[in-house]
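Form 7-S
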Amino acid sequence: MATDNPYTPPRAAVADVDSAPRMSKQQIKRLSPHQNAKVFAVLFAVSSLIFVVPFVLFASAAMPGGNAFGGVFFLLAPLIYLVMGYIMTAIGCFIYNLMAKYTGGIEYEAETI
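Output:
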């Protein structure tokens, strides 16, 4: 019965208005030091194996006799990468959080589909 009212203008369909994706600018105001440091520490430790394994194999083949250094390095490298990755990422997030107050943070565009 609402269409019988001559004072009600016709409305556009909602699908016509929202069919195009929208772009919006967003800023990262704060990075969580502990959460990001955990993720990057594990990432560094796992990715260190990609470089350490070939290095240890090459060093073992190149050095004659027993090579105790290669075995110790092979075991300690992922641990060192884990600890240093955590510390450096936490420090980096802390510095970013201080600077984001003055610079506004990293800006990116996101598209809603």
